Amino acid sequence: MLPEPMLDVFFAARQQPVPIMIGSNSDEASVMAVFGIDLAGQIQKLRRERRFGLGLIKLLYPGVKGDEELGRQVCRDMAFTTMGYVVMQAQQRVGAPCWRYWFDYVAEAEHATYINGAWHGNEVPYVFDTLGEVEPSRQYVNARDVQFAAHVADYWVSFARDAGHRDSLPGPTHWPACRKGRDVLLRIGVNKHAGFKLENRFMRARMSLFKRVMKHHVNLD
C-alpha cells in the first residue's frame, strides 16, 4: 500500500525529483473490455446525465463518429493518456526531466488484427527487445519489426543509463525531455507503421480538460 494516493502526490508535485519516462498506447481501451466496461455505454450515460459535458468532449474529437469509437477514444485518453500529461506537469514544477511517448506501432503482419493501433501492453516486447522470442510474436514478426524493436529498446537503455545527466536521448530521432516551457512527446510508430516523430503539445486541449476531471473523479489508491 502506498502511504497516499499516487495522483494526489503528482497533482501536488510532491514526487521525488528524479527522471521519469511515461507514456501510453494508441488503443489502451482494448483492456477495458476485459473489465466489462461498455465503451459506447459510457457515452450514452454522458448523454443522459451530462449532456453539456458530452457536447464539450465532442468538440475535442472532430470527425469521430459513433458512440463506440468516441467511447473508445475518450476512455483511452481519460484513463491512460492524461496520466502522462499530469506527470509531465508535476516534473516541470519540481525541475526534473520527463520523457513522454505515444506507442502506436503494430507488427506488419498484424495490422488487420489491431485495427485501432497498439493494445494495452503491446509495447513490452519492444521495450525489452524480446519481439520474436516469445509467443505469440514469434509466429508473425519479420526482420523489419525486429529492427524497430531494437530502436525502441535502445531508447529505454539510454534512459536508464543517461537520463540523470542529459536532456535528450539519442536514436533515430533525438528525443528531448520535457522541461519548463517544453511540452513534447515522441510518437513511437506512426499510424501503426515504423517511424519516430516528435509532436509538441500532444492532445493538449483534451489533456487539460481530462486533468480537471481526473483530479475530482479518479482515484488510484
From TrEMBL:
- Does the keyword field hold Hydrolase? yes
- Which residues are in the Carboxylesterase type B domain? 73-198
* Source species, domain of life: Bacteria
Q: What InterPro entries does the annotation carry?
A: AB_hydrolase_fold, AChE-related_enzymes, CarbesteraseB
> Which Gene3D superfamilies does the record match to this protein?
alpha/beta hydrolase
- List, alphabetically, the SUPFAM superfamilies matched: alpha/beta-Hydrolases (SSF53474)
Query: Which keywords has UniProt assigned to this entry?
Result: Hydrolase
This protein's record includes keyword RNA-binding: no
Q: Name one Pfam family in it.
A: COesterase
| Gene Ontology terms, MF aspect | carboxylic ester hydrolase activity
Q: What is this protein called?
A: Carboxylesterase type B
Organism this protein belongs to: Enterobacter cloacae
